[in-house]
Write a structure and sequence with these properties.
heterodimer, A: 228 residues, MetI-like fold, 79% helix, globular, B: 272 residues, D-Maltodextrin-Binding Protein, domain 2, 2 domains, 10-stranded mixed β-sheet, 11 helices
Chain lengths: 228, 272
Amino acid sequence: MDYIANGFFEAFHLLLDGDPETFSAIWITLQVSGYAMAASLMMGVPLGFFLGFYEFAGKRQLRVFVDTMLSLPTVFIGLMVYVLLSKRGPLGEWDLLFTPEGIAIGLTILALPIIIALTATAVESAEKDLILTLLSLGANQRQMLLTTLWETRFGLIAAGITAYGRVMTEVGISMMVGGNIKWHTRTITTAIALETNKGAFSTGVALGIVLLLIALFVNISVSFLRRK
Amino acid sequence: MKRLFFLTMIWLASISYGYAEGPTLMMATTTSTESTGLLDYLAPHFEKDTGITLKWVAVGTGKALEYGKNCDVDVLLVHAPAAEMEYVNQGYGIDRKEVMYNDFIIIGPESDPAAIKNLSAREALAAIRALKANFISRGDQSGTHKMELSLWKEAGIPTPDKDSWYIQAGQGMLMTINMAAEKNGYTLTDRGTYITYEKTMNGAPPLKILVANDSRLFNQYSVIIVNPKNCPQVKPGPAKEFSDWITGKGAQALIGNYMFQGKALFMPNAGK
């Protein structure tokens, strides 16, 4: 049972020797998670801000709904997106099944509630003292909005990192919607599932370590942002 | 702020790219053809001979047939003859041709509590049930699972379901074998996955081959073209090329020569 030690060495071999299959999987993982993060941040930050900043009828209920969506199981999202994108499904003409873009749609559904809920929480917790201060300084509505957004930037970064971690590591959506096609839709996580089925446990462990290294790299880049 | 902009630009640049592609063929197949490496071995030959890039999704036969029904793939390479015939009769597929076979085996602990060694498959299942020895089933409508279900039927035993000795794994073959080893039980597997399992156990597996060479355990793989009448979006042309290619002389020889962990695994039998 030296799969873990072997896996560790193999991880460095795969990376240093530039193993094409591994790099293809890394590339596709970055690609689908990149699309999904771009889409979910663009939609989720404004929605989360709206949910946290304004008072309106049904806000509590909406919040409960968003929080419930945090529990969406990835295999369920995968199945729903498959049904939508299948040639026989309502969006079959878009030709997105078994493509990275199709996976990205599923991942966006996974990430969106996380971004919305965490953005709303960040705005809510910053808001109370901030609004009083801003009001006393005589700020108008627009200045208040921008300042709140700026003051919650660390909360937004945390939301992004949390969502990115979830999106990069899920396997249900990528497997069902992407189909784990070599060179095309094989992500790191679906490659791990395949290597496990093949009995190549060390390679599976190695790919897991590769995924963690990428996550480390992403988080280092973000912490560089945080120092402002 | 500048840094944020810079990082965002790098990130956007890294995700927007495109590449040109020649004709491609989308196939749904069973996990065994992928995990044994057979398709990785055949696909480049197919591309060289026809100029068509073969892409595949490897899933259980049940799911593969479902992909065909939904027009998500152009061609199928699967191993559940009864389900395939029904599929073709229902008009979802055309031109079913046999390609190759390997065999199923029943494996179990070396101590063999139910004493099934060298029995026929049916007798073995009856003995396992009589003793209520643990039996691990795939339980996932895969080709292997369908084979197991038909064996219970032929042995005249109602399919076990809630019996405590009958464990429905709902997982891939290798995981099912691992589960059988943990539970000291029996299971039905294709030979290819068993060879993989032997390798993961460094050649000393706790589960041994107990029943083999029963003609009922014959595992036939066939190619089926998804019916273009049912699915206007599919590519019957490249699908037909693949079907002709894999049942042709060249590919049949390639299949016969394919060695998996140093052992011959698939016997070509197209047109026989």
